[in-house]
Write a structure and sequence with these properties.
alpha+beta, NADH Oxidase, 2 domains, 4-stranded antiparallel sheet, 8 helices, about 15% strand, globular
Length: about 280
């Protein structure tokens, strides 16, 4: 499964089969997390002096046999915890880090679910052994979903409208709606504007808090500069922007492009300026 397939396949699953992952799968998960943490040492939007975010893998036993998610998650035996400082850039980078891992886990057939609020920060914090200045921003179960979904899960998905996506032209300006059949073509046969339209459609499929889809993008006439910004301000906005940024950068890499991101601290909204390298 490639990045595009993983992005389009990923869903939030809250009910799991209750089984511990086998040792080989745990080793795969740990390798994915370790590689992503190492890559996160290179800042995306945070200042170089700010500590990098990190993700740790926890087992249910380390949480005293209780997941600490207030019933939002059932049957999961493994969880990831996303750890960061309070800096804006660090939290954006943290969102990108966790989503990068989630996409990689989706690609190997595992299920996950972003949780930003419905978990016990004290219980997860104790299990993760936080350093001074660190906090847990979000957690996610890791495992295999149950063959049947609970009524509560179906209701949560309905309330969050998790499968609904806003139209492309409502979210992005300066670029045409993509022809997704172009994904099957060699990337060197596409124009920069064709590539950016596909990249932004992958951003459109990014998860966000309450499926708010707060990100917007304005593309320059030559398709080589993008202003990615948020229209919503909540406690999860920085994470949402980091998730969108990861979808942007991973999709661009799939199409052979390398973009540089810079947080615009002077902008009134959370704004990331991207330029094709």
């Amino acid at each position: 499964m490639n990045i595009f397939e993983a992005i389009l396949t990923r869903r939030s699953w809250r009910t799991y089969n209750g089984l511990r992952l086998d040792e080989n799968t745990i080793s795969q998960v740990e390798s994915i997390i370790s590689a992503a943490n190492a890559a996160a040492s290179e800042p995306l939007t945070r200042d170089a002096a700010v500590p990098a975010p990190r993700v740790v893998l926890l087992e249910d036993e380390s949480l005293n046999g209780l997941s600490g998610t207030y019933g939002a998650i059932r049957g999961a035996r493994h969880f990831m915890a996303l750890i960061s400082t309070s800096s804006e850039g660090a939290q954006i980078d943290a969102g990108a880090l966790m989503e990068n891992i989630i996409i990689s886990l989706t690609a190997i057939g595992l299920d996950t679910c972003w949780l930003g609020g419905t978990f016990s920060r004290s219980r997860f914090g104790a299990a993760a052994a936080l350093a001074d200045g660190e906090e847990i921003l979000a957690v996610s179960p890791v495992g295999h979903r149950s063959p049947s979904t609970r009524f509560a899960e179906r209701m949560m998905q309905r309330l969050a409208r998790s499968s609904r996506r806003k139209p492309f032209q409502e979210l992005f300006s300066g670029v045409n709606t993509p022809d997704l059949s172009a994904i099957t073509r060699p990337s060197d046969s596409m124009t920069d504007r064709e590539r950016i339209s596909i990249i932004l459609d992958m951003v459109r499929h990014a998860p966000s808090s309450s499926n708010s889809q707060p990100w917007r993008a304005a593309v320059s006439p030559d398709g080589r500069k993008v202003r990615l910004y948020s229209t919503r301000h909540s406690r999860y906005s920085l994470l949402d922007m980091g998730i969108a940024l990861d979808h942007f950068l991973e999709s661009a890499a799939m199409l052979g492009q390398n973009w540089k991101a810079r947080l615009d601290a002077a902008a009134p909204d959370i704004t990331i300026n991207l330029q094709l390298d």
